[in-house]
Amino acid sequence: MRLKDKVVLITASTRGIGLACVKKCAKEGARVYMAARNIERAQEIANTLNDAKCMYNDATKPETFTSMVEDVVKDAGRIDVLVNNFGTSNPGKDLDFANTDPAVFLETVNLNLRSVFMASQAAAKHMAKHGGGSIINISSVGGLVPDISQVAYGTSKAAINYLTKLIAVQEAKHNIRCNAVLPGMTATEAVEKNLTEEFRNLFLRHIPLGRIGLPEEIAEAVVYFASDASAYTTGQILTVSGGFGLATPVYGDLANKANRR
């Protein structure tokens, strides 16, 4: 019960990594608040968990990033952990630098950055009043390693990595920690829908552990940063990607030819 009685708010919480975080935090004893646009779906999930409630959040309505935090504090009296899981991209329009419409670029960067900034700012105000807290940003390895497409998504995630460190430095005086978890390719519905099998297999060649991650494995990293086990850890950018990006760029071409024991 690593999160016993901690008040945890998780955005984009009804599927994929967000849902895995909800289930893992609830299992660890947290009082979980699911922030979601589809309240009906969120409530169905909350009904299956101990001490879980729903709060409305629509990423296209910036004011709801503040109101969801205020609603949690009104209901629970405080907020101990914020998990900024929301993130968006349109692979069909978020292309390479030369071919991405500026409007698409700016909209994606705006959506992804303001979700973290506004929610974190609102939560930090209350955390400071109650002795501190933990902010956890779900970023991406795409914010570390430049890709051949999704210029807006990668740029926004790189900015979130920097914002994570900035929050960590500037809010440390209030005992507020801020860390980021950077998933690699993860077995979510979004990956299944947006990435072809050919691309997934190509990507796998560059993952030393040889498989894609599970949402539950990302959630484990989130629980660590949410728990007191990481009380002296802040400003960290933790990749959970099976080793993607560690090896030489030609790893995928040479790995099968290398001598193996």
Features:
single chain; 261 residues; alpha/beta; 7-stranded parallel beta sheet; globular
Would you kindly provide a written description of the structure presented here, covering whatever features stand out?
The protein is of the alpha/beta class. The chain is 43% helix and 14% strand. It has 9 helices and 7 strands. It has helices spanning 16-27, 39-46, 63-76, 102-129, 151-171, 189-194, 197-204, 215-226, 251-254, and strands at 7-10, 31-36, 52-56, 81-84, 133-138, 176-183, 237-240. The chain is globular, with a radius of gyration of 18 Å. The termini are far apart. The mean pLDDT is 94.
Please provide a brief summary of the model:
The protein is α/β, with parallel strands linked by helices and 261 residues long.
Overall 3D geometry? Answer: globular
What is the average of the pLDDT values? 94
DSSP strand content: 5-15%
**How do the helices and strands follow one another from N- to C-terminus?**
EHEHEHEHEHEHHHEH
List strands and helices in order, with pairings:
Blueprint: E1 7-10, H1 16-27, E2 31-36, H2 39-46, E3 52-56, H3 63-76, E4 81-84, H4 102-129, E5 133-138, H5 151-171, E6 176-183, H6 189-194, H7 197-204, H8 215-226, E7 237-240, H9 251-254
Parallel strand pairs: 1-2, 1-4, 2-3, 4-5, 5-6, 6-7
